[in-house]
UniProtKB/TrEMBL annotation:
UniProt region (Disordered), positions on chain: 328-371
Domain RRM span(s) in chain numbering: 17-95, 238-316
CDD domains associated with the record: RRM1_PTBPH1_PTBPH2
Domain of life: Eukaryota
Keywords, in A-Z order: RNA-binding
Listed name of the protein: RRM domain-containing protein
Taxonomic source organism: Aegilops tauschii subsp. strangulata
Single GO term (MF): RNA binding
UniProt xrefs under Pfam families: RRM_1 (PF00076), RRM_5 (PF13893)
PANTHER family named in the record: MATRIN 3/NUCLEAR PROTEIN 220-RELATED
SMART domains according to UniProt: RRM (SM00360)
Classification via InterPro entries: Nucleotide-bd_a/b_plait_sf (IPR012677), PTBPH1/PTBPH2_RRM1 (IPR034792), RBD_domain_sf (IPR035979), RRM_dom (IPR000504)
UniProt KW Cell membrane keyword: no
Regions of compositional bias (Low complexity) in chain numbering: 357-371
Length: 371
Protein backbone atom coordinates (compact mmCIF):
# COMPACT_ATOMS: atom_id res chain seq x y z
CA UNK A 1 0.00 0.00 0.00
CA UNK A 2 1.29 3.48 -0.76
CA UNK A 3 2.48 5.55 2.14
CA UNK A 4 -0.28 8.09 1.61
CA UNK A 5 -3.01 5.44 1.64
CA UNK A 6 -3.34 5.31 5.39
CA UNK A 7 -2.57 8.33 7.62
CA UNK A 8 -1.89 6.03 10.56
CA UNK A 9 1.50 5.02 9.15
CA UNK A 10 4.84 6.49 8.23
CA UNK A 11 7.25 4.46 6.11
CA UNK A 12 10.29 6.74 6.32
CA UNK A 13 12.05 4.31 8.71
CA UNK A 14 13.41 0.89 7.71
CA UNK A 15 11.86 -2.09 9.52
CA UNK A 16 12.78 -2.59 13.17
CA UNK A 17 11.56 -4.92 15.90
CA UNK A 18 10.66 -1.74 17.87
CA UNK A 19 7.47 0.10 16.90
CA UNK A 20 6.89 3.77 17.71
CA UNK A 21 3.29 4.47 18.76
CA UNK A 22 1.82 8.00 18.76
CA UNK A 23 -1.44 9.71 19.72
CA UNK A 24 -1.97 7.49 22.76
CA UNK A 25 -4.55 8.29 25.47
CA UNK A 26 -3.37 9.89 28.71
CA UNK A 27 -1.36 7.64 31.04
CA UNK A 28 -1.30 4.66 28.71
CA UNK A 29 0.00 1.56 30.52
CA UNK A 30 2.54 -1.12 29.67
CA UNK A 31 -0.25 -3.69 29.79
CA UNK A 32 -2.31 -1.79 27.18
CA UNK A 33 0.69 -1.71 24.85
CA UNK A 34 1.34 -5.41 25.41
CA UNK A 35 -2.30 -6.17 24.64
CA UNK A 36 -2.07 -4.14 21.43
CA UNK A 37 0.99 -5.99 20.18
CA UNK A 38 0.45 -9.50 21.54
CA UNK A 39 -1.77 -10.52 18.62
CA UNK A 40 1.26 -10.36 16.34
CA UNK A 41 4.00 -11.93 18.47
CA UNK A 42 5.83 -11.89 21.77
CA UNK A 43 6.19 -8.41 23.25
CA UNK A 44 9.45 -8.40 25.22
CA UNK A 45 9.51 -4.76 26.32
CA UNK A 46 7.50 -1.55 26.32
CA UNK A 47 8.07 2.08 27.23
CA UNK A 48 5.13 4.38 27.96
CA UNK A 49 4.42 8.10 28.35
CA UNK A 50 7.22 9.32 26.08
CA UNK A 51 7.38 12.81 24.58
CA UNK A 52 6.41 16.28 25.74
CA UNK A 53 2.72 15.37 25.88
CA UNK A 54 3.41 11.87 27.26
CA UNK A 55 1.24 10.40 24.49
CA UNK A 56 3.88 8.32 22.72
CA UNK A 57 5.35 4.90 23.43
CA UNK A 58 7.51 2.07 22.10
CA UNK A 59 6.71 -1.63 21.69
CA UNK A 60 9.58 -4.10 21.27
CA UNK A 61 8.93 -7.54 19.76
CA UNK A 62 11.11 -10.62 20.10
CA UNK A 63 11.53 -10.75 16.34
CA UNK A 64 11.49 -8.11 13.60
CA UNK A 65 9.04 -10.15 11.50
CA UNK A 66 6.47 -9.79 14.27
CA UNK A 67 6.78 -6.00 14.13
CA UNK A 68 6.45 -6.12 10.33
CA UNK A 69 3.31 -8.23 10.72
CA UNK A 70 1.74 -5.61 13.01
CA UNK A 71 2.55 -2.68 10.71
CA UNK A 72 1.39 -4.59 7.63
CA UNK A 73 -1.87 -5.70 9.23
CA UNK A 74 -3.02 -2.25 10.33
CA UNK A 75 -1.80 -0.66 7.09
CA UNK A 76 -4.23 -2.82 5.11
CA UNK A 77 -7.04 -3.17 7.67
CA UNK A 78 -10.24 -1.17 7.66
CA UNK A 79 -10.07 -1.26 11.47
CA UNK A 80 -7.43 1.18 12.77
CA UNK A 81 -5.16 0.39 15.70
CA UNK A 82 -6.82 1.69 18.86
CA UNK A 83 -6.12 2.03 22.57
CA UNK A 84 -9.15 2.80 24.75
CA UNK A 85 -11.13 3.57 21.61
CA UNK A 86 -8.65 6.18 20.40
CA UNK A 87 -6.90 5.77 17.04
CA UNK A 88 -3.12 5.52 17.42
CA UNK A 89 -0.40 5.96 14.81
CA UNK A 90 2.31 3.39 14.15
CA UNK A 91 5.75 3.50 12.54
CA UNK A 92 9.03 1.65 12.80
CA UNK A 93 11.38 3.09 15.39
CA UNK A 94 14.94 4.10 14.53
CA UNK A 95 16.11 2.01 17.49
CA UNK A 96 16.51 -1.77 17.64
CA UNK A 97 15.78 -2.19 21.34
CA UNK A 98 14.19 -0.32 24.24
CA UNK A 99 16.37 0.88 27.09
CA UNK A 100 15.60 2.47 30.45
CA UNK A 101 12.19 0.88 30.88
CA UNK A 102 10.02 2.07 33.71
CA UNK A 103 10.56 0.22 36.98
CA UNK A 104 7.71 -1.06 39.09
CA UNK A 105 6.74 1.25 41.96
CA UNK A 106 7.74 0.28 45.49
CA UNK A 107 4.82 2.01 47.22
CA UNK A 108 2.08 -0.26 48.51
CA UNK A 109 -0.97 -0.30 46.29
CA UNK A 110 -4.06 -2.34 45.53
CA UNK A 111 -2.57 -3.92 42.37
CA UNK A 112 0.12 -6.60 42.56
CA UNK A 113 2.63 -7.46 39.83
CA UNK A 114 3.21 -11.21 39.98
CA UNK A 115 6.06 -12.96 38.18
CA UNK A 116 5.68 -16.74 37.83
CA UNK A 117 9.03 -18.49 37.78
CA UNK A 118 9.58 -21.97 36.37
CA UNK A 119 6.64 -22.03 33.95
CA UNK A 120 5.97 -21.32 30.30
CA UNK A 121 3.44 -18.66 29.28
CA UNK A 122 -0.18 -19.74 29.90
CA UNK A 123 0.94 -22.72 32.03
CA UNK A 124 -0.81 -21.07 34.97
CA UNK A 125 -4.38 -20.15 34.06
CA UNK A 126 -6.32 -17.12 35.28
CA UNK A 127 -8.64 -19.52 37.10
CA UNK A 128 -5.72 -20.87 39.14
CA UNK A 129 -4.47 -17.36 39.92
CA UNK A 130 -7.95 -16.32 40.98
CA UNK A 131 -8.25 -19.32 43.27
CA UNK A 132 -4.88 -18.59 44.92
CA UNK A 133 -5.29 -14.83 45.40
CA UNK A 134 -8.99 -14.72 46.24
CA UNK A 135 -8.15 -16.53 49.49
CA UNK A 136 -7.07 -13.09 50.79
CA UNK A 137 -9.96 -10.99 49.56
CA UNK A 138 -12.16 -10.06 46.62
CA UNK A 139 -10.19 -9.99 43.37
CA UNK A 140 -11.54 -7.34 41.00
CA UNK A 141 -9.48 -7.98 37.86
CA UNK A 142 -6.61 -10.11 36.54
CA UNK A 143 -4.49 -9.61 33.44
CA UNK A 144 -1.62 -11.87 32.33
CA UNK A 145 1.11 -11.09 29.81
CA UNK A 146 4.66 -11.92 28.72
CA UNK A 147 7.63 -9.64 29.23
CA UNK A 148 11.39 -10.08 29.05
CA UNK A 149 11.34 -11.01 32.74
CA UNK A 150 8.93 -13.90 32.08
CA UNK A 151 5.27 -14.76 32.48
CA UNK A 152 3.55 -12.15 34.64
CA UNK A 153 0.15 -11.14 35.96
CA UNK A 154 -1.48 -8.07 37.45
CA UNK A 155 -3.94 -8.77 40.28
CA UNK A 156 -6.28 -5.95 41.33
CA UNK A 157 -7.75 -5.99 44.85
CA UNK A 158 -10.22 -3.61 46.46
CA UNK A 159 -7.59 -1.89 48.60
CA UNK A 160 -3.88 -1.80 49.41
CA UNK A 161 -4.39 -3.58 52.74
CA UNK A 162 -5.80 -6.68 51.06
CA UNK A 163 -3.06 -6.61 48.42
CA UNK A 164 -0.38 -6.27 51.13
CA UNK A 165 -1.82 -9.26 52.98
CA UNK A 166 -1.67 -11.39 49.84
CA UNK A 167 1.87 -10.23 49.03
CA UNK A 168 3.13 -10.99 52.54
CA UNK A 169 1.65 -14.49 52.44
CA UNK A 170 2.50 -15.52 48.87
CA UNK A 171 5.75 -13.80 47.86
CA UNK A 172 8.38 -16.48 47.34
CA UNK A 173 5.88 -19.33 47.79
CA UNK A 174 4.99 -22.00 45.23
CA UNK A 175 1.53 -22.60 43.80
CA UNK A 176 0.31 -25.95 45.26
CA UNK A 177 1.15 -28.81 42.94
CA UNK A 178 -2.42 -30.17 42.97
CA UNK A 179 -3.52 -26.99 41.16
CA UNK A 180 -0.95 -27.64 38.42
CA UNK A 181 -1.07 -31.45 38.03
CA UNK A 182 0.56 -31.43 34.58
CA UNK A 183 3.48 -29.22 35.56
CA UNK A 184 6.86 -30.91 36.03
CA UNK A 185 8.52 -28.90 38.76
CA UNK A 186 7.22 -25.95 40.75
CA UNK A 187 5.91 -22.45 40.05
CA UNK A 188 7.35 -19.82 42.38
CA UNK A 189 5.58 -16.48 42.84
CA UNK A 190 7.63 -13.27 42.98
CA UNK A 191 5.37 -10.36 43.94
CA UNK A 192 5.83 -6.58 43.81
CA UNK A 193 3.43 -3.67 43.95
CA UNK A 194 2.33 -2.27 40.62
CA UNK A 195 2.21 1.45 39.87
CA UNK A 196 -1.36 0.99 38.58
CA UNK A 197 -4.50 1.29 40.66
CA UNK A 198 -7.14 0.29 38.10
CA UNK A 199 -6.67 -2.31 35.35
CA UNK A 200 -8.31 -1.68 31.99
CA UNK A 201 -9.89 -5.00 31.00
CA UNK A 202 -11.88 -4.72 27.76
CA UNK A 203 -12.77 -8.38 27.24
CA UNK A 204 -13.09 -11.61 29.18
CA UNK A 205 -10.45 -13.99 27.84
CA UNK A 206 -7.83 -16.52 28.92
CA UNK A 207 -5.45 -13.54 29.37
CA UNK A 208 -7.75 -11.06 31.15
CA UNK A 209 -10.74 -11.21 33.45
CA UNK A 210 -12.98 -8.59 35.10
CA UNK A 211 -14.89 -10.14 38.01
CA UNK A 212 -16.80 -6.91 38.68
CA UNK A 213 -18.54 -6.97 35.29
CA UNK A 214 -20.15 -10.31 34.37
CA UNK A 215 -21.61 -8.73 31.22
CA UNK A 216 -18.23 -7.87 29.72
CA UNK A 217 -18.07 -9.55 26.28
CA UNK A 218 -15.68 -12.29 25.27
CA UNK A 219 -12.66 -11.23 23.27
CA UNK A 220 -13.27 -11.33 19.47
CA UNK A 221 -10.76 -14.17 19.22
CA UNK A 222 -12.28 -15.99 22.19
CA UNK A 223 -13.91 -18.83 20.29
CA UNK A 224 -12.32 -20.79 17.46
CA UNK A 225 -13.72 -23.60 15.38
CA UNK A 226 -12.98 -26.22 18.03
CA UNK A 227 -14.83 -24.35 20.77
CA UNK A 228 -11.65 -23.54 22.67
CA UNK A 229 -11.73 -20.14 24.29
CA UNK A 230 -9.21 -17.47 23.25
CA UNK A 231 -6.31 -19.78 22.62
CA UNK A 232 -6.94 -21.80 25.76
CA UNK A 233 -7.13 -25.49 25.07
CA UNK A 234 -10.45 -27.00 25.96
CA UNK A 235 -9.93 -29.86 28.39
CA UNK A 236 -11.13 -32.98 26.52
CA UNK A 237 -13.42 -35.26 28.47
CA UNK A 238 -12.17 -38.77 29.16
CA UNK A 239 -13.28 -41.96 30.87
CA UNK A 240 -10.21 -41.72 33.12
CA UNK A 241 -10.04 -39.17 35.95
CA UNK A 242 -6.84 -37.72 37.41
CA UNK A 243 -7.35 -37.17 41.14
CA UNK A 244 -5.07 -35.00 43.28
CA UNK A 245 -5.46 -35.11 47.05
CA UNK A 246 -5.01 -32.02 49.23
CA UNK A 247 -4.68 -31.85 53.04
CA UNK A 248 -3.78 -35.53 53.24
CA UNK A 249 -3.87 -36.21 56.96
CA UNK A 250 -4.72 -39.88 56.46
CA UNK A 251 -3.45 -42.58 54.14
CA UNK A 252 -5.59 -42.83 51.01
CA UNK A 253 -5.68 -46.45 49.88
CA UNK A 254 -6.96 -47.99 46.67
CA UNK A 255 -9.82 -49.53 48.66
CA UNK A 256 -10.85 -46.08 49.93
CA UNK A 257 -10.77 -44.62 46.43
CA UNK A 258 -12.68 -47.57 45.05
CA UNK A 259 -15.49 -47.16 47.58
CA UNK A 260 -15.78 -43.41 46.95
CA UNK A 261 -15.71 -43.54 43.14
CA UNK A 262 -17.84 -46.70 42.82
CA UNK A 263 -20.84 -44.71 44.05
CA UNK A 264 -21.16 -43.33 40.49
CA UNK A 265 -20.58 -46.46 38.43
CA UNK A 266 -18.37 -49.48 37.88
CA UNK A 267 -14.71 -48.64 38.43
CA UNK A 268 -12.55 -50.69 36.07
CA UNK A 269 -9.05 -49.78 37.23
CA UNK A 270 -7.20 -47.59 39.74
CA UNK A 271 -3.53 -46.61 39.84
CA UNK A 272 -1.93 -44.35 42.45
CA UNK A 273 1.40 -42.49 42.33
CA UNK A 274 3.35 -39.56 43.78
CA UNK A 275 4.45 -36.55 41.73
CA UNK A 276 5.91 -33.21 42.81
CA UNK A 277 5.54 -34.30 46.46
CA UNK A 278 1.82 -34.79 45.96
CA UNK A 279 -0.49 -37.81 45.98
CA UNK A 280 -2.34 -38.60 42.76
CA UNK A 281 -4.56 -41.37 41.42
CA UNK A 282 -5.99 -42.41 38.06
CA UNK A 283 -9.52 -43.85 38.11
CA UNK A 284 -10.86 -45.57 34.99
CA UNK A 285 -14.58 -45.89 34.22
CA UNK A 286 -16.14 -47.80 31.29
CA UNK A 287 -17.35 -44.58 29.62
CA UNK A 288 -16.97 -40.82 29.60
CA UNK A 289 -20.48 -40.14 30.91
CA UNK A 290 -19.79 -41.94 34.20
CA UNK A 291 -16.48 -40.13 34.63
CA UNK A 292 -18.17 -36.75 34.01
CA UNK A 293 -20.84 -37.55 36.58
CA UNK A 294 -18.24 -38.55 39.19
CA UNK A 295 -16.14 -35.46 38.54
CA UNK A 296 -19.09 -33.10 38.87
CA UNK A 297 -20.15 -34.72 42.14
CA UNK A 298 -16.76 -35.14 43.82
CA UNK A 299 -14.69 -32.12 42.73
CA UNK A 300 -13.71 -30.13 45.82
CA UNK A 301 -15.20 -32.64 48.27
CA UNK A 302 -13.22 -34.37 51.00
CA UNK A 303 -12.94 -38.12 51.44
CA UNK A 304 -12.99 -37.72 55.22
CA UNK A 305 -15.10 -35.31 57.25
CA UNK A 306 -13.29 -32.26 58.56
CA UNK A 307 -11.85 -31.29 55.19
CA UNK A 308 -9.26 -34.08 55.18
CA UNK A 309 -8.07 -35.59 51.89
CA UNK A 310 -9.80 -33.10 49.62
CA UNK A 311 -10.23 -34.19 46.01
CA UNK A 312 -9.34 -32.14 42.93
CA UNK A 313 -10.30 -33.86 39.68
CA UNK A 314 -9.34 -33.41 36.04
CA UNK A 315 -9.74 -35.53 32.93
CA UNK A 316 -6.69 -37.62 32.08
CA UNK A 317 -5.17 -38.08 28.63
CA UNK A 318 -5.29 -41.84 29.22
CA UNK A 319 -8.23 -43.98 28.17
CA UNK A 320 -7.03 -47.44 29.29
CA UNK A 321 -4.74 -47.89 32.29
CA UNK A 322 -2.06 -50.56 32.12
CA UNK A 323 -2.30 -52.33 35.48
CA UNK A 324 -0.03 -55.35 35.21
CA UNK A 325 -0.30 -56.58 38.77
CA UNK A 326 -2.77 -56.07 41.59
CA UNK A 327 -1.11 -54.49 44.62
CA UNK A 328 -1.32 -51.39 46.79
CA UNK A 329 -0.35 -49.19 43.83
CA UNK A 330 -2.72 -50.52 41.18
CA UNK A 331 -5.88 -52.58 40.87
CA UNK A 332 -7.78 -54.07 37.90
CA UNK A 333 -11.42 -54.83 38.77
CA UNK A 334 -12.35 -56.17 35.32
CA UNK A 335 -10.87 -59.62 35.92
CA UNK A 336 -8.52 -59.21 32.99
CA UNK A 337 -5.54 -59.07 35.31
CA UNK A 338 -4.88 -62.58 36.60
CA UNK A 339 -1.59 -61.74 38.29
CA UNK A 340 -1.64 -62.36 42.04
CA UNK A 341 -1.24 -59.52 44.48
CA UNK A 342 2.36 -58.56 45.10
CA UNK A 343 3.03 -58.00 48.79
CA UNK A 344 6.60 -56.79 48.28
CA UNK A 345 7.22 -53.13 49.24
CA UNK A 346 6.67 -50.61 46.44
CA UNK A 347 9.79 -49.24 44.76
CA UNK A 348 8.35 -45.80 45.48
CA UNK A 349 8.56 -46.47 49.19
CA UNK A 350 5.88 -46.54 51.90
CA UNK A 351 3.25 -43.86 52.37
CA UNK A 352 4.74 -40.98 54.37
CA UNK A 353 1.64 -40.63 56.57
CA UNK A 354 1.00 -43.07 59.35
CA UNK A 355 -2.30 -41.86 60.80
CA UNK A 356 -5.21 -44.26 61.00
CA UNK A 357 -8.07 -42.97 58.92
CA UNK A 358 -11.60 -42.63 60.25
CA UNK A 359 -14.50 -44.12 58.31
CA UNK A 360 -15.11 -42.41 55.00
CA UNK A 361 -18.27 -41.76 53.08
CA UNK A 362 -18.66 -43.15 49.57
CA UNK A 363 -20.18 -39.94 48.20
CA UNK A 364 -20.38 -36.28 49.18
CA UNK A 365 -22.94 -35.48 51.84
CA UNK A 366 -24.06 -32.47 53.81
CA UNK A 367 -21.72 -33.56 56.59
CA UNK A 368 -18.65 -33.52 54.36
CA UNK A 369 -16.55 -30.37 54.52
CA UNK A 370 -16.07 -28.46 51.33
CA UNK A 371 -13.32 -25.93 51.85
Amino acid sequence: MASGGNPQFRYTQPPSKVIHVRNLPWECTDEELTELGSLFGKVVNTKCNVGANRNQAFIEFADQNQAIAMISYYASSAEPAQVRGKNVYLQYSNRQEIVNSKNTGDAAGNVLLVTMEGVLPDAVSIDVLHLVFSAFGYVHKIATFEKASGYQALIQFSDAETASSAKAALDGRCIPSYLLPELDGSCTLRINYSAHSVLNVKFQSHRSRDYTNPYLPLAPSAIDGSGAQDGKKEEPESNVLLASVENMQYIVTIDALHEVFSAFGFVQKIAIFEKNSGFHALIQYPDIQTAVKAREALEGHSIYEGGYCKLHLAFSRHTDLNVRINNERGRDYTGGNSAPANHEPSILGPQPIGSTAPPYSSAPSAAADVV
